[in-house]
Amino acid sequence: MASAEPKLPTPEEAMAFSLGKTLTLKIQDGTATTAEIENFKKLFPDVAKVLEDPSQTEVSVQEAVITEDGEAVSPETGKPLTAAQLAEIEPPADAKPSDPSEEEETPEETAVDPAAPPAEADGDLTAKVKGGKWKMTHITHTHRSYLGQTILKYHTYARFNYKGGKVRAWGKRYDRFSNESDVVKIGSRIENRKSKVPASSATSMMKRHVELCFAGSIGCYANIYPWAKVKVYGSGKTKVAGSGA
Amino acid sequence: MMSLVAQIILILAIFFGVLTALGSGFGTLEIIIWFAVMIAALVFVIKRYQRSRNSNS
């Protein structure tokens, strides 16, 4: 009787394992860059959920879909949102709206949500946006200190319209900070990009400069650059990236 | 033994090196601790220097 031979990993599996091991060690050592951490989250999402990230940042995403009837519903359950739930997603009055003069428009994207149904033909996309669904994304990146105190929370908001597999328009985009500790000195927005629409997918990104200072602004001891990026698809799906530091 | 000025410069270099390397994760509490420990280190070095001078004289 022939014994079953042990299955050898393919070269791709071996490379992925080796890369995963290297990145895990770097993340746990605290030497991984933000890009490496984000790459790790993409490649090994299940491991990333349980791996402690010493960069001390956390991300949370809250979303609301405004249907063609104007009703705000949860994208997960489809149930109407309460006023309190909607208030958590919508930007408050102190949120700084994107200034059109500082916006950089990046070229149209062509990525398609693989889980979405085929795009419908829509010859009138360049016309004024009518109908479709609006979705508001509220991304929060929390930057914590080594002892677990919240240094700041960076909130970014982006509203977009989608229908028939196309992202049809960007709505208002904002950013703001909350829960700032005494050492935080908020600087200007240093990046504000949105990709051209209509397209099958689109990306919005905002980045700020923040200084950490004691004794007013005399003793500034660190610069951090919180940023948030949201890639949106014509199906309404969203994918976020970013960092609180 | 190093001169007092050299010791103070060394301590400041170490503490500011730590702040430069790890400062982005320093909140209010960490910066207060960092400052207090730096002052304590400077006081310790100065007192030790004074003691050694007194014992030599």
- Kindly state the mean pLDDT of chain A as a whole number? 80
**SS-based structural class of chain A?**
alpha+beta
Helix fraction of chain A, binned, reads 10-25%
Q: Give the helix proportion of chain B (percent range).
A: over 70%
Largest beta sheet: strand ordering of chain A: 2-1-5-6-7-3
> What is the H/E order of chain A?
HHHEEHEEEEEEEEEE
| Approximate strand percentage of chain B | under 5%
Overall 3D geometry of chain A?
A: globular
Number of helices of chain A: 4
Q: N-to-C SSE series of chain B?
A: HH
Number of strands of chain A: 12
Question: What topology does this entry show?
Answer:
The complex is a heterodimer of chains A (245) and B (57).
Chain A: H1 11-29, H2 34-43, H3 45-50, E1 57-66, E2 72-73, H4 83-89, E3 96-97, E4 104-106, E5 133-144, E6 150-163, E7 166-178, E8 184-195, E9 201-214, E10 219-224, E11 227-233, E12 238-243
Parallel strand pairs in A: 4-8
Antiparallel strand pairs in A: 1-2, 1-5, 3-7, 5-6, 6-7, 8-9, 9-10, 9-11, 11-12
Helix pairs in contact in A: 1-2
Chain B: H1 4-22, H2 28-56
Helix pairs in contact in B: 1-2
Characterization of this structure:
The complex is a heterodimer of chains A (245) and B (57). Chain A has two domains: 11-55; 57-243, no CATH class. Helices cover 17% and strands 41% of the residues of chain A. Chain A has four helices and twelve strands. Chain A has helices spanning 11-29, 34-43, 45-50, 83-89, and strands at 57-66, 72-73, 96-97, 104-106, 133-144, 150-163, 166-178, 184-195, 201-214, 219-224, 227-233, 238-243. In chain A, the strands form two sheets. In chain A, strands 2-1-5-6-7-3 form a six-stranded antiparallel β-sheet, with helices on one face. In chain A, strands 4, 8, 9, 10, 11 and 12 form a six-stranded mixed β-sheet that branches. In chain A, a hairpin with a 2-residue loop joins strand 6 (150-163) and strand 7. In chain A, helix 1 (11-29) packs across helix 2. Chain A is globular, with a radius of gyration of 21 Å. The mean pLDDT of chain B is 92. With 57 residues, chain B is mostly helical. Chain B has one domain (4-56). At the A-B interface, strand 10 of A face helix 1 and helix 2 of B.
